[in-house]
C-alpha cells in the first residue's frame, strides 16, 4: 500500500497573516520571528558591551570637562560631550531588563560605573587646583549642577534616538545621539567631584543628585523605546519581572530622595529669580493744625559766655555707583559677611542700582565688595556681579 506523501508547507512570508497583524508587524523594528529576535538580541548585547576604549575616552572626557570648569567656558563643555565614548552601557541597562538577564544588567552597570568613577576622580583632582587661582569663577559649573527642563529635553531625545538607532542598525554606533547622553551624565558628575574637593558651594552633592536622576531617567526611556519597537520581555514572571521591579525601585528611590531633598534644602534646584519689591517712599503731607504764637521773651542783662567750636573732620569714604549684572543667574544675593554661607539679607535683580565701598576682600576664591542699597542696607556681594559706569582702579 502506498501512503500519501506529505508535501512541505510553504514558508510563511506574512501574506497569510490577518491584515491587522500584518500591518502591526510591518510597523515594528524588531523581528517577531524567534530566531531573528535571538540574533538581534545577541548583536545588541555585543554592541552594548563597553570596549576598552570606552574607559580611555571617558578619561579624556573627564580631563576636558575639568579644564572647562576651571576656565568657565561653555565651548569646552560642548567639546567634552563631543569626544565622549559611545554610551553603550547605559542602553545595555534597558536591554538587560527586557531580555531578563540579571548578569548582563550587572555587567552593564559595572562597566558604566567604572567609566563614571574615572570622570568623578578627574573632576575631584581638578578641584584641588582652585586655591592657586582665587580669582576663578564657576558660574557654568553651578548651572550644570542644577535641574532644568532644557537638560531633561536633551537627555530624553538623546536616549530615544540612541536606543532606536542602535536597534535599527546594531552594526553602527549613533555617536551624535550618544554625545547628548554623555553631556547630560558626565558633566554633572564631574562638577560634583570638583565641588567635593574645592569646597565651592552649590556643586556637591547637587551634581551627584542630578547625575543619578538623569541615569535613572535614561534607563527608563530606553525600556519604553524597546517596548515600542516590539522587544517584549521573554519571561513575565522570570528575570524580566525581577529586573524591572529592581530598576523601577532604584528610579523611585533616587527620584523621591533627590527631589524631596531638593525641595527641602534647594539642593540641585535652579537658582531662584529674585522678585523686585518696590520700596514705598512716604511723602510728608502739610498739616492744617494752627500753630499758637510763640511768646516773646524780654532780653536780660545777664552776660552769656562765648562758646568756642572745634571742627573735627571725619573722613567719609567715596562711594562708586554701580548696577547688578548677574548675567545667567538673573539676580544676586547680598550677604551679611563676605562668605558664601553667610545669611542673605537681600536679593537684587539685574540692573538694580547700588553704591560700592572702595574696600575689597578676597575670601573663598572670589573677590567681595561691600555695597549700600538705596534704603540704607549694607552687605557684601561678588565683585564679578557688579558693573560700573566708570571703571574704578583695581576693578
What spatial form do the alpha-carbon principal axes imply? elongated
The top level CATH class name of the largest domain: Mainly Alpha
Total count of strands: 7
Percent of residues in β-strands: 5-15%
Q: Trace the largest sheet across and list its strands.
A: 6-5-4-1-7
Alpha-carbon distance between the two ends = 111 Å
The overall average pLDDT, rounded, is 75
Structural class designation: alpha+beta
Radius of gyration: 33 Å
CATH architecture of the largest domain: Up-down Bundle
Q: In terms of per-residue confidence, which ranges show pLDDT below 50 for 5 or more consecutive residues?
A: 3-14, 24-29, 258-265, 273-281
Topology as a string of helices (H) and strands (E): HHHHHHHHHHHEEEEEEE
Query: Might you state the CATH topology name of the largest domain?
Result: Glycerol uptake facilitator protein
Largest sheet: 5 strands, antiparallel
Instruction: Give the helix tally.
Output: 11
Number of domains: 2
Helix content: 40-55%
Q: What can you see in these coordinates?
A:
The protein is α+β, with helices and mostly antiparallel strands. The chain folds into 2 domains: 29-265, Glycerol uptake facilitator protein; 320-388, Roll (SH3 type barrels). 48% of the residues lie in helices and 11% in strands. The chain has 11 helices and 7 strands. It has helices at residues 19-27, 34-47, 52-71, 74-82, 88-99, 102-127, 139-144, 149-168, 175-198, 206-228, 239-265; strands spanning 320-324, 331-335, 344-349, 353-363, 366-372, 378-382, 386-388. The chain has a 5-stranded antiparallel sheet, with no helix packed on it. A two-stranded antiparallel sheet has the order 2-3. The longest helix is centred in the middle third of the chain and has 27 residues, at 239-265. It is elongated. The N and C termini lie far apart (111 Å). Residues 3-14, 24-29, 258-265 and 273-281 have low confidence and may be disordered.
